[in-house]
Specification:
- The structure is a single chain.
- The chain has 251 residues and is α/β, with parallel strands linked by helices.
- It has a single domain, classed as TIM Barrel, CATH 3.20.20.140.
- The protein contains seven helices and ten strands.
- An eight-stranded parallel sheet has the order 1-10-9-8-5-4-3-2.
- α4 packs across α5.
- The termini are close together.
- One zinc ion binds next to loops.
Length: 251
């Protein structure tokens, strides 16, 4: 399996309110790590009813683009800088998301699904907080997982995504979660839809500190590769010191 270890294709910045550090610090960290290319992939969410904002406002996206473009110029010849967006899918807000994505051209559009709705309230399926895990658990682990994969498939088909992030992220911190053959089948369907659209699959190295392996599992990566889905590395850095983390352990 070929994974390009010279590009970190998924890092955040202070603009999303839960990551730390200036964009320039991420760029410097990428150069120090010997990377040839760094792609910022900032959070977009639409219509999410949650107790805090983990995404950028329109004004913050403008600052993000301006600073990214300034850095791209300033670091020309030293490192290639890309500007992208990690789109959190919300089936209720498709028109709004598509309008946002049309407004600018992005170097990468990563598709994600973080927020699951129960009675008008959203809960983060990737979170390890009780305030998310408990209501999602009582809603039904199996139901949430089934909806997660169905919604992710819809997102892959509907959005102009160039890649998919967090394929197996659903309820990752919930003790009752184990993927079954039925779940594997849903994953295969998503991979096939990605292959048809020419999308990449992210190999997210934030898995190493959590479970000693990248996300998603080796078996899923092998299936993706067999379908012709290119694998791309992303650290999902939320602080500069995490840029390019564990890339030496890939492939
Ligand atoms: Zn984040
Ligand atoms: Zn991310």
């Amino acid at each position: 399996m070929h994974i390009d270890r010279t590009t970190d294709g998924h890092v955040h910045t202070k603009y999303c309110h839960h990551a730390h550090g200036e964009m320039v610090d991420y760029v410097e960290a990428a150069i120090a790590a010997g990377l040839k290319r760094l792609i910022f992939l900032e959070h977009l969410e639409s219509g999410i009813n949650y107790f805090e904002s983990t995404w950028l406002s329109e004004a913050e996206f403008a600052l993000y683009r301006a600073e990214g473009e300034r850095l791209r110029e300033a670091y020309q010849g030293r490192i290639e800088i890309g500007l992208g967006v990690e789109v959190g899918y919300n089936p209720q807000r498709v028109a709004e998301i598509l309008a946002f994505l049309k407004h600018h051209s992005w170097d990468r559009v990563g598709v994600s699904f973080h927020y699951y709705e129960i009675d008008g309230q959203h809960y983060n399926v990737v979170s390890r907080r009780k305030a998310n895990l408990e209501p999602l658990g009582s809603h039904g682990v199996e139901r949430v997982i089934a909806d997660y994969f169905a919604t992710l498939l819809e997102a892959v088909v509907t959005l102009p995504g160039t890649g998919l992030c967090h394929l197996d992220a659903v309820l990752r911190h919930h003790p009752e979660v184990h993927f079954t053959a039925a779940h594997q089948h849903r994953i295969s369907e998503i991979l096939q839809a990605m292959a048809a659209k020419g999308m990449t699959l992210e190999v997210n190295t934030s898995g190493f500190p959590h479970r000693g392996e990248q996300y998603p599992t080796q078996a899923i990566l092998e299936e993706a590769a067999a379908l012709g889905v290119p694998l791309v590395a992303g650290s999902d850095a939320h602080r500069p010191s995490e840029v390019g983390r564990y890339f030496e352990r890939l492939g």
